[in-house]
Specification:
Length: about 280
């Protein structure tokens, strides 16, 4: 009977220790166990597991074994600046990675600096998502300093990061002529528009930009984007339903040329001859 009670006590202690551990750590161990048991994977969706910095540290060991991963989603995992050290160490091994999603974490500018150290090894990366990570203008500077290493980058998502005009200007300095960025999102970043000219001048040299998202910024952004984008054929933008019109080269709503409509109205007024009263 005593042996039975001792056995139950041991089992209960193990269960208690398991539940006292952060949930992210437990999940990370389960994921790593699965990663080690599977063969080589090409896609890993690990979003919203709540790993935290300790969980990501455990997870990184498993990620290094999966060095043929093309798509990796680590969004919504409470990854902070400490956790990015482990993520960066794992990314160095993922040399064929094409898409990386780290949105909705707590990376801030120090975490961005840790991640940037792995960018030189990610020559195949085409999509980088760092939305909602409180990067600030310092984080934009860090990303800008290292983004030239991402020679295959086509999509850069930096929405909701409080970059401000200073951050956009610092980011622009990092783009290289040989890069071919096609889509960039700067939604809700307190941008007034002063820095857009510098950014678009840089991207104009690449001759690849197709879409830029700038809604939920200052009202001045729209006009600044229009002046900055002159000569950039085919460029579209999300400014609350507006896009660059092929007719007037301005931003028109819902694909209808506002300027052509206004010009027609003005011409109608000029040619209208009121009836003379008898």
């Amino acid at each position: 009977m005593k042996d039975r009670l001792d056995q139950i006590k041991v089992v209960n202690t193990k269960v208690l220790n398991r539940y006292l551990q952060p949930l992210g750590v437990t999940k990370a161990r389960q994921v790593v166990k699965s990663l080690l048991s599977f063969g080589k994977l090409q896609s890993l969706n690990l979003s919203n597991y709540g790993f935290g910095s300790k969980g990501v540290q455990i997870l990184s060991d498993g990620l290094r074994k999966q060095n043929e991963v093309l798509f990796l989603d680590l969004s919504k995992n409470q990854i902070d600046k400490e956790g990015t050290l482990s993520v960066s160490a794992a990314l160095i091994k993922l040399k064929v990675l094409r898409e990386l999603n780290l949105s909705d974490n707590q990376i801030d500018f120090e975490g961005a600096d840790h991640l940037a150290k792995s960018f030189s090894q990610l020559s195949s990366l085409q999509v980088l998502n760092l939305e909602r990570n409180n990067l600030g203008f310092k984080g934009a500077f860090v990303v800008g300093q290292s983004i030239g290493s991402l020679i295959s980058l086509k999509v850069l998502l930096l929405s909701d990061n409080q970059l401000t005009d200073l951050g956009v200007a610092l980011l622009a300095q990092g783009f290289k002529k040989y890069q071919k960025v096609q889509i960039i999102s700067l939604k809700n970043n307190s941008i007034k528009g002063d820095s857009l000219h510098l950014l678009l001048e840089k991207l104009k040299l690449q001759k690849a930009l197709k879409f830029i998202q700038l809604d939920q910024n200052s009202a001045q952004t729209k006009m600044s984007l229009w002046y900055s984008s002159l000569g950039m054929k085919g460029l579209q933008s999300d400014l609350g339903g507006s896009q660059l019109c092929s007719v007037c080269k301005r931003f028109c709503d819902s694909g209808i040329c506002n300027w052509s409509r206004k010009r027609t109205f003005l011409m109608a007024r000029l040619t209208f001859k009121p009836l003379k009263l008898l």
